[in-house]
Amino acid sequence: xxxxxxxxxxxxxxxxxxxxxxxxxxxxxxxxxxxxxxxxxxxxxxxxxxxxxxxxxxxxxxxxxxxxxxxxxxxxxxxxxxxxxxxxxxxxxxxxxxxxxxxxxxxxxxxxxxxxxxxxxxxxxxxxxxxxxxxxxxxxxxxxxxxxxxxxxxxxxxxxxxxxxxxxxxxxxxxxxxxxxxxxxxxxxxxxxxxxxxxxxxxxxxxxxxxxxxxxxxxxxxxxxxxxxxxxxxxxxxxxxxxxxxxxxxxxxxxxxxxxxxxxxxxxxxxxxxxxxxxxxxxxxxxxxxxxxxxxxxxxxxxxxxxx
Length: 308
Known about the structure:
The protein is an alpha+beta fold. The protein folds into three domains: about 5-65, no CATH class; about 70-180, Tetrahydropterin Synthase, Chain A (2-Layer Sandwich); about 260-300, no CATH class. Helix content is about 55%, strand content about 15%. The chain has helices spanning about 5-25, 100-105, 110-130, 145-165, 180-255, 255-270, 300-305; strands at about 25-30, 30-40, 40-45, 50-55, 60-65, 70-75, 80, 85-90, 90-95, 170-175. It has a three-stranded antiparallel beta sheet, with helices on one face. Strands 6-9-10 form a three-stranded antiparallel beta sheet. A two-stranded antiparallel ribbon has the order 1-4. The longest helix has about 70 residues, at about 180-255. The N and C termini lie far apart (about 170 Å). About 10% of the residues are buried. The model is unreliable at about 300-308 (pLDDT under 50).
């Protein structure tokens, strides 16, 4: 056999092997799971990654599904709370395919799964919200907000049915925010303003009460301090006056003439100035000091004057 013919035969054989490998074998990746169907009927569920064999299409077909966690935002819709308030509560659902065969038989595609979850979660959300008041969704007091409890109840209502009917395991349902329809916004704002005004009035009253108590205590302490200060001042003044009287008495006893002379001068300074006109007996003290001639100096004062 010629070499060219051998090469062609080998290449043809290799091509056939590759074609049969693609037709008879398939690979499941780490993030995949699959259902093998034969003439449309499920015959095998594959959830581990690796290489597998199958009959060529159209005998058998590999239906691949994503094994990772999926997220889907539920469509917006209005719900009614227990106290008859319309609210819009956007939510999301985190889910994955737990039973690929049931998922294939009940839904078939991811888009169909999203539609089913949308209806299921929306119905459960409306049911749960109907058992809670509006202030349990939005409140300035954190202990009144029940959003985690609402999320848990919605998950509880939907998870069992989703797994049993669609092969979907719901991992989490979360509330993104709480909004209001446009017609209710002004009413809610007015109610919030009224509530805030009540809180403000209460806080002002409590603050005024505390301020009055502080002022009363301060006034009482002020009165006590002033009384003690006046008492101390009177005691000090009385002691000083007693000391002055004692000093005057001692000076008068030691030098009565000098004391009388100084007292007369002091009285004269207080009574007489440049605009004073007096008609008095010039011989009566202390006006006798105004007569012409040298002022009489007491002996005690002259004794202290040194001679030139």
